[in-house]
Write a structure and sequence with these properties.
The chain is an alpha+beta fold. It has three domains: 214 residues, HUPs (Rossmann fold, 3-Layer(aba) Sandwich), CATH 3.40.50; 68 residues, Uridine Diphospho-n-acetylenolpyruvylglucosamine Reductase, domain 3, CATH 3.30.465; 123 residues, Phenylalanyl-tRNA Synthetase, Chain B, domain 3. The strands form five sheets. The protein has a six-stranded mixed sheet with strand order 3-2-1-4-6-5, sandwiched between helices. Strands 7-8-11-10-9 form a five-stranded antiparallel sheet. Strands 12-16-19-20-21 form a five-stranded antiparallel sheet. A hairpin with a 2-residue loop joins β10 and β11. α4 crosses α5, α6 crosses α10 and α11 packs across α12. The longest helix is centred in the middle third of the chain and has 30 residues. The N and C termini lie far apart (50 Å).
Length: 440
């Protein structure tokens, strides 16, 4: 099976021997097989595990299992906790869609931060069948009918050449251990209902269902190439990017029956559905100021153009800082870091500078948006204080409070960034090494 995966990867140019890969690992059977195959192929990889906090102790046990798996393969492991339900409620989307949006956003941020080449996920042929059937029930375009692509941007899927039975055979032969997600058995979720109730019936009609669907998906992919070539020509004429904001020239859109499909193809990258696209078309002839939102972006009709801006998802996740890191550059924050000797170090008292005792820090450090219940011991005080009360004392405007970020070490807040250090991490006469952080 290793050779089958290698041949598939070479056919679709998924990776080369010197590629550095982030493996998305839940701890389930598919992702465990993905890890083992990457190790067997002697590829350099790290493990990324998203803890969505949806199954309580079971979610935490999954995370612990994945960390032990990383030790087995002697590879780095990165974990992230998300407030998935809060994000789903805010965006009025399903919990599963919220989890997908949060994890793929985090995977890409992590890939850029680590300068890795690709993100490997463990989809296989049975997932392709489920995805196509699910898309059909919801309504879909050409992309939804070709199922799951072997490669999509920085996302690669080396296991798409395998059936679920192949994966079971592999773990049996290798005697691999995995975690079983109890939610996979319930038919409350649409995908599970298709998996457990619909596909078995279809396989009675066609035992080779996976291969048949895969062949049909390949034909649809070829047709999609023709459509994409036309859409790309339109994209080059109507879209421009300035300072992280996308502008779409309405006058350059085709004035034909193809408009709904073309505009959908242009906007789906930003998370807009076909239904929303149809509403946007209605608004093209209307007054300026009409707003539309997806889970990740906001679109506004502004005179003769559409203006698309990205939402900030960091309120639901975080950035990591590694020991050797010297800078962090993300859309809403630029940070420089220096490791200095404490001897003759002169403290900068500016609010946008933090001078910390390196010996007291636990890496990786994390930067996240503050949340209710957070507390720290402000520099100059002896007792702890809730950050919500601290921001009131600092007279931070209500509409700016949700932009305030905190730097954490382990479970402790080190710095309310741009405002005050925690006195527990200040440098003293016992400090040997200083970590100096500057906000740009």
């Amino acid at each position: 099976m290793i050779q089958k995966v290698l041949a598939f990867a070479q056919q679709h140019q998924l990776f080369t021997p010197d590629h550095q890969i982030i493996a998305a690992v839940s701890g389930g059977i598919d992702s465990v097989v993905l890890c083992d195959l990457l190790a067997e192929l002697n590829l350099k990889f790290a493990i990324a595990h998203a803890n969505f906090g949806l199954r309580g102790e079971e979610s935490d046990a999954d995370e612990l299992f994945v960390k032990k798996l990383a030790k087995k393969y002697n590879v780095p492991v990165y974990t992230e906790h998300f407030n998935t339900k809060a994000f789903a409620t805010q965006e009025k989307i399903s919990t599963q869609m919220a989890a997908r949006t949060l994890r793929y956003t985090w995977f890409e941020n992590l890939r850029q931060q680590l300068s890795y080449d690709s993100i490997a996920v463990a989809h296989h042929q049975s997932d392709t069948v489920e995805t196509i059937l699910l898309n059909l029930t919801r309504g879909t375009g050409l992309p939804g009918l070709h199922g799951i692509a072997p490669k999509n941007g920085n996302i690669i899927r080396p296991l798409l050449c395998l059936r679920k039975d192949d994966i079971y055979d592999y773990v049996t032969s290798k005697q691999l251990i995995w975690r079983e997600d109890s939610s996979n058995e319930t038919t409350l979720y649409q995908r599970n209902k298709i998996r457990h109730e619909v596909i078995p019936v279809l396989k009675q009609l066609n035992p080779n269902l996976e291969q048949t669907v895969q062949q049909t998906a390949a034909k649809i992919s070829a047709a999609e190439i023709l459509v994409n070539e036309y859409v790309q020509r339109v994209r080059e004429q109507v879209l421009r990017l300035e300072n992280g904001i996308t502008y779409l020239d309405i006058a350059g859109l085709p004035q034909s029956a193809a408009l709904p499909l073309v505009l959908f193809e242009l906007l789906q990258f930003y998370g807009f559905t076909f239904e929303v696209t149809q509403s946007i078309i209605v608004a093209l002839e209307g007054e300026s100021g009409k707003l539309f939102e997806s889970a990740t972006h906001t679109l506004a009709k502004d005179r003769e153009q559409l203006v698309i801006t990205a939402k900030n998802l960091q309120a639901f996740g975080s950035y990591e800082i590694l020991p050797e890191q010297t800078e962090l550059q993300v859309p809403d924050l630029q940070l420089s870091l220096k490791h200095l000797s404490a001897a003759n170090y002169k403290i900068n008292t500016g609010k946008k500078v933090a001078a910390l005792d390196s010996g007291l820090l636990q890496f990786p450090l994390k930067i996240r948006t503050w949340k209710e219940g957070d507390w720290f011991v402000p520099l100059g005080m002896n007792g702890k204080k809730k950050i919500s009360d601290f921001l009131i004392d600092e007279k931070v405007p209500v509409n700016l409070k949700d932009r305030v970020k905190v730097l954490t070490s382990g479970n402790s807040i080190v710095w309310v960034m741009g405002y005050r250090l925690d006195t527990r991490f200040k440098i003293t006469d016992k400090t040997e090494q200083v970590l100096e952080m500057k906000m740009q």
